[in-house]
Specification:
alpha/beta, seven-stranded mixed sheet, six-stranded mixed sheet, 16 helices, 30 strands, 28% helix, flat, magnesium, Bifunc_Mopterin-bd
């Protein structure tokens, strides 16, 4: 492939490196020029373009990505159609992701033009979640390189989603004097919730004294009728001969591993009894927060074996977040600072349905709509307001003169909504926990509405998508947690936040803000009905 300045007379068949305008015609980046395109560019006075010229043995970026994806051997994973040199692969069911790291490393070592990225080994995934992506860096790549990658892929399963199985679980809770009934009841609810997320169910519970004999008897009984037994000790394991591991052995089972290099979760016990797995749960498993118990439980429910060697290898990455339910935290917890949220105000669109005038410059009570929206964002609890400009950027900036906003220019605004999202997110502060996407054409959204979304986001500890709604119907704005920022970089075309919310499987919190969530002004009638006056 040849890349660089190409004389327009020889540009037929070349792939544009940058968006290019010829009169009223705009050619997108990666557009392949035909004879008519070349004639238009010449008529516009363009003598050369920056482009890629493919060699006879080159594959286009999309063809190369598709061929690599088609050569992969995987389970419960679906490859999407190629776009801009990328094929994304998504889970077809909820489960645990496994990957052949050596195979991925070998593919990524073939040539820097070909890349594959995946989730981490043993990551839990939801149905529809992206688990891997194939990306071709240039506009084309040698077919010989693609063939080399295909040969590596033929070597075996590259990755898989190990689907959760609807296992039956019996629970034992041991009791000592002073333990509260409410603690035992809560433990049961938390365990049921853990099983429900992966399709399992709790079928029986036994509450016994904290003694080897009674626990052994209960474990043997539950193992006969269930796929797994979980034991919650009233007192944490303090020795490898303590009640829980000793009870497993007394019942005729074996202890695979007592203790794990995951914190919280150190005091987990894993055993086998009558061919069934037995887990001695650490005390932290009474909390719904992630801990080492989740790592072992989820893998077992997904049908994966967990050996003593597997547990011993969990130390790297095994230092999890401190949980405040511990009676004696390892270190004092610092005062929790309020999570920062930046507003990304989208103001780059062309108002094409208005037939000419820019709706963002329409006057509402004598003030341009975009200024009114920006002022309301500045009046909220958001830390910063980032305004994405594109179409008529100078006029939009002039309408915002004097306001303390941050501008993000989007020269590719005509490519669709995704380009504006990318430009805005790129300007979000590094310490912001989330970004609230605010459309510039929603005149009814007030500062107080934005604050309600921010409050709900902080209540979720920055882990949920928070969305404005009206009478149960989703609307705008939408507040995205930082965990989605990387996925935004993969959006293409006129795809917005709604796609991410549906694809990534995060919890969604809907906040009722009234009609404001659903009123935008895409047409003259809608704008005038909302009280706006268009300006030429």
């Amino acid at each position: 492939m040849k890349f660089g300045l190409i004389p327009i007379n020889t540009a037929e068949g070349a792939v544009l490196a940058h968006a290019t305008t010829a009169g009223e015609r705009r050619f997108r980046k990666a557009h392949r020029l035909n004879a008519d395109d070349v004639a238009l560019l010449k008529a516009a006075g363009i003598s050369e373009v920056v482009a890629a010229v493919l060699a006879p043995d080159d594959l286009s970026e999309d063809a190369a990505a598709e061929k690599i994806a088609e050569s992969m051997i995987h389970r419960n994973i679906e490859a999407k159609s190629a776009a801009t040199g990328r094929v994304n692969l998504h889970a077809q069911a909820a489960g645990i992701f496994t990957v052949d790291a050596a195979m991925i490393d070998a593919i990524n070592a073939v040539d820097p033009t070909i890349t594959i990225a995946t989730l981490a080994q043993h990551a839990p995934v939801e149905k529809g979640q992206m688990v891997a992506t194939v990306k071709i860096i240039p506009f084309a790549v040698s077919s010989m390189l693609v063939d080399s990658v295909a040969r590596i892929c033929a070597g075996g399963e590259i990755f898989a989603v190990n689907v959760y199985q609807p296992v039956r679980v019996g629970v034992i809770q041991t009791v000592l004097p002073g333990i509260k009934q409410s603690v035992l009841d809560k433990t049961l609810r938390v365990t049921e919730a853990r099983l429900a997320r992966s399709g399992g169910r709790l079928t029986a519970e036994r509450r016994t004294p904290h003694e080897v004999g009674t626990v052994a008897e209960a474990a043997a009984s539950l193992a006969r009728d269930n796929d797994m037994v979980v034991i919650f000790g009233a007192s944490a394991m303090s020795d490898f001969g303590d009640v829980v591991p000793a009870a497993i052995e007394k019942a005729g089972g074996i202890v695979i591993r007592a203790g794990m290099p995951v914190d919280p979760g150190n005091l987990l016990v894993l055993g086998k009894l009558g061919g069934k797995r037995v887990i001695g749960a650490p005390g932290c498993a009474r909390s719904p927060k992630e801990n080492g118990f989740d790592w072992v439980l989820d893998r077992l429910i997904a049908g994966l074996d967990v050996t003593a060697k597997d547990i011993a290898g969990m130390g790297v990455g095994g230092l999890l977040m401190e949980i405040p339910t511990r009676p004696q935290p390892r270190e004092p917890l610092p005062a929790r600072a309020e999570l920062k949220v930046d507003v990304v105000l989208l103001a780059a669109g062309r108002s094409s349905r208005m037939g000419g005038p820019n709706k963002l410059l329409a006057l509402f009570d004598g003030k341009p709509l975009v200024r009114r929206t920006a002022e309301r964002a500045l009046g909220s609890k958001a830390s910063d307001t980032i305004v994405v400009t594109g179409h008529q950027r100078e006029r939009v900036r002039a309408a915002l003169s004097g306001l303390e906003v941050t501008f993000a220019d989007n020269p590719d605004f005509a490519d669709g909504l995704s380009s504006s999202l990318k430009a805005g997110i790129a300007k979000v502060a590094g310490d912001a926990a989330g970004a609230m996407i605010v459309l510039g054409d929603m005149p009814g959204v007030a500062s107080a509405d934005l604050d309600r979304l921010i409050d709900a986001f902080r209540k979720s500890e920055g882990r949920s998508v928070v969305r404005a709604s009206h009478e149960g119907r989703r609307g705008n704005p939408v507040l995205l947690p930082r965990s989605l920022f990387a996925a935004i970089a993969h959006l293409e075309g006129d795809t917005g936040a709604r796609h991410l919310v549906e694809a990534e499987g995060l919890d969604v919190v809907d906040v009722e803000i009234g009609k404001a969530a659903s009123i935008d002004v895409d047409t003259r009638e809608a704008l005038e009905g909302a009280g706006g006056v268009l300006q030429d």
